[in-house]
Amino acid sequence: MRLFLLLISILSISSSCKTDNNDISRSIEDFNYDWKFNLGDTPNAFDSVFNDDQWKMINVPHDWSIEEGYQETGDVASSSGFVPGGIGWYRKSFILTEADKNKQISIQFDGVYNNSTVWINGKLLGTRPNGYVTFVYDLTNHLKYDGTPNVLAVKVDHTAYVDSRWYTGSGIYRNVKLIKTEPLHIAQWGLQITTPKVNSNSAEIQIKTALINNNPKEEQQIVVKYNILDSNHNVIISKSTQSDDLNANVNITIDTPKLWSLEDPNLYHLEALVFENEQQVDNVIQRFGIRTFNFDANTGFSLNGKRMKIKGVNLHHDAGAVGAAVPKAIWEYRMKKLKSIGTNAIRFAHNPHSPELLEVCDEIGLLVMNEAFDEWSAPKAKSKVYLGDNAASKEASKAYPEVFDEWAERDLKDLIRRDFNHPSVFMWSIGNEIEWTYPHYSKTFNEVNPNSSAAGYEYVPVYDADKIKPIFENNIETVDPLTTIAKKLVKWVKEEDTSRPTVCGSVLPSIGMVSGYGTTVDVYGFNYRQADYDIAHKTYPDLKILGSENWGAYSEWKTANDRDFVAGIFAWTGFAYLGEAGPWPRKGLNISFFDFAGFKTPRGHFFETLWKKDPKVYMVTTPVSESEYSYSEKEGWKFNMQFTPPPVWDKLRLWEWYKVYPKWQYEDKESIIVQAYTNCEEAELFLNKKSLGKQKLTTVVENDHILKWLVPYADGELKIVGYNNGVKADEYVLKSQGTVSEIKITTNKTTIKNDGYDVAVITATLFDANGAVVTDADIKIEFEVEGAARNIGVDNGWERNIQSHKSNEIVTHQGKAILFVQSTKDTGAIKISTKSKTVTSNTLDLEAK
C-alpha cells in the first residue's frame, strides 16, 4: 500500500509540474558588479566597518596585472610577461531581506589568482591557494537580513609574481555568483550525467544526484523529477524517483538520439526538480551531450564510432589585451577562428580554464583535454630576464608545489565535478612534463643516451627495458615519487569519473614506461617525442599513444597522420600567449596559429592547408639574406636552421616559424624567396601577370609541404594560383605598397547583447591608394567609441608590443590593430571610428539590444 501511495504521489507531481514553473526555488545572482578595489596590502580591510570610500569602483572579472601594464624593471619577470603581481583587496556590500532569511546562501568564485582569503562581515571563510579552481563558501550563518549591508572582503596575495612559467594575471579574474537555495537542495556540482550505451536507435542516460538537507524533518518525503529537453527546450521524456539517503540515481532511455559531434554539436538539457512533501524546493538545469569515443592502441581515436585524427592545439588561459579576465564572447571569437582552420581539439595548458570556454567548446564542437597541473610537489624553474635563464628568486617564484600535498586531491576532484557534464571534455590530464622536476628521470635518460641531450630533443630513442631499468633503479634512493603521486592522482580521478580516460604529457616516455608512470594513465601523451612513436608502439603494442604537445611543424603532423596507432597531435600553440619569453620587450611568444590580436599567422595558414580540404593557397616572402632556405642549380633547395641567438635558449627556434613576411615590398631586383602553402594539386606563381612556373605539391609533400620560388623583386603584383584537375581552385595576391591613404575598420558582429558582457571585435587595417595593405609604415591610430559600449582593450598582435592595452591609442603592426568593444546595460546605437594624424576611417554602426 505504501509503494502504491508513493507512485500516486510521484505521478501527481509529474503531471502538475511544468518546466516554466514560476516558483523560483533556486536563484543564481550575477555578483560581478560594484566591487571596491585597492592594489596594495591593507591589513584591516576584512573588517566590515573598514572605510573603503577612497578605493576604486570596478566590476569583475578583473585582472590588475594587465591593467598595470608591462614594466621593464621592478618586481616583474620574463616568465610571467613583465607585469606586476602584488597584493590586492576587493570588497563588496550587498543587502539581504527577511525573504532571504531561511535560505542557504553561498558565494561562488570561478577563479581568483591567487592565494585568496575570503571574509564575510569580518568572519573568515577560508583560503584557497590555487588560482585556477572554482570554489564556494557557505555564507548563511554569518549574514544580516535586517536591511543593513553585508560586506564580502577578498584578499588576493600574488606577491610571488613569478610563480608560473607563463602569464597568470592577478585578482578576481573570473565570474562571481551569489547562490540562494532552500535548505534541501541539490549539492554544488551534484548532477552527474553519463551516456554509457549509445547507438543510432537509443541512448541510455545515467543520472546521479547528490542532495544536501540542512533541515531534516521527521516526516519528509523527497522526490526528484527529471525532465530531458531537446535543443528547442521541448520536454522529450520525464522520470521521477524517491530519495531516502540524499542520493537519487535514475536511468532514462532516449529514442533516436541526436549525437554531439564536431560537425553537429547537439546539446540536451536536463532539468532536475526537487520536491519536499510535494512542494518544489529546488530546480537545476544542466546541459549535456550524447556521444561515445574510444582510444585504441592500433587504430587511434574514434568519436561516435568514426575514426578520426585529433587535430589539436594547446591553449593558455589568457587572451592578449584583456589578460586573464576573458569574456565568453572573446573565447567564442577565438575558438571559431581555430575551428575555421580545421582544429578539432583543445588542450587546456596546463591548468583548469574558465567554465565559459568549456561552454563555447560544447556549443561549437571542439574536444577538450582538461588538464589539472603543470607542477606537482617539486617546482619547475622560472625565468627572470629571458627564457631559460632560470634566475627567478626562490621567494618570487613560490608556487603551488608548496601546497600540493595538502590541496591536490581537493583541487583535482573539484575540477572533475565542475566540468563533469561538458560533452567536449574527453580526457583528464593529471600533469604536464612532470619528469623535469625529478632529476633521476633526466639523469637516467642521459645515461641511456650518452650522446644526446634530453632537453635538446635530439636523440635516437632507446626503449630497451633491460638496459633502462638498472640505470633508473640506481638513480633513485627508494621509491619513485613521480609514479607514486601519479597513481594517487589517477585513483582520485577514477573516484569521480570512470567514463573518461586519464592522460599525462610525458617528455621522457621511454623512462616512464620502465618506471611505471606510463602505465599509470589510460592514454600516454608524448610531448615533443614523435621520434619515439614507432619504437614505443613496437615495444609496447598495447600502449595508447597521443601527441599531447607537438611543434607546430609539418613533420609533427605527418608523423602522426601516417600512423594509425597515433591518435593525433596537440600543436604548441593555438593562440600567442603572454609570458615564457624575454628579454625585454618580448613579453610573450607568438609561436602560434593566431597572434595575440587574433590575426592568422603564416603557420596558421600553413596548417589550414593540412587540416582542411577546402582549396587554399597562401604565400609569404623572405629576402635570401634572411632566409633559412637557399637555392642553387646544382643542389636545389637546402635548409639550414638558424637557431635562436644568445642569451635566449637556442632550441627555442624549434618552436618558432620561418622568418617570413606577408608582403611584396623590397629593393629592386633583390633576391626573394617565395613560400607557398597549399592543399591544391599544383600552384602557379605570377609576377605582374607573367608566369614564373607551375609546381606540383607532390614534389614537396615528403619534405616540408612548401612550394618555393626564387624571384628577383620588381614593383607590382605577385599572385599565386592553385589548381585542382587543371582548374583554378584558389588564388592569393600580394601588392607593392604605397603610403597610407585609408584606414578601414570592420567588425565581427553588428549587433551585441546589452548584457554588459558581449563583445564585438573591431579590426583596423591600413591601405594605400591602390588597395594594397600597408605593412611597412605603421602609425599610431586612435579609436573612438560612442554610445552603448565601452573599450576594454586594444592590441596589434605583436609579441614586442608593450603599449598599454587599456587605451584608445595603438601603433599598428604590419598594418593592423584591433579593439575589443564590450556592451553596457544600455540599448541603442554604437558608433566606432578610427583616426590618425593624417587619415581617418569609415564609421561602423553597431547596435546594442
Automatic annotation (TrEMBL):
The keyword Hydrolase applies. It comes from the Bacteria. Residues 671-727 form the DUF4982 domain. Residues 191-291 form the Glycoside hydrolase family 2 immunoglobulin-like beta-sandwich domain. Residues 29-181 form the Glycosyl hydrolases family 2 sugar binding domain. Keywords: Glycosidase, Hydrolase. This is Glycosyl hydrolase family 2. It comes from Aquimarina aggregata.
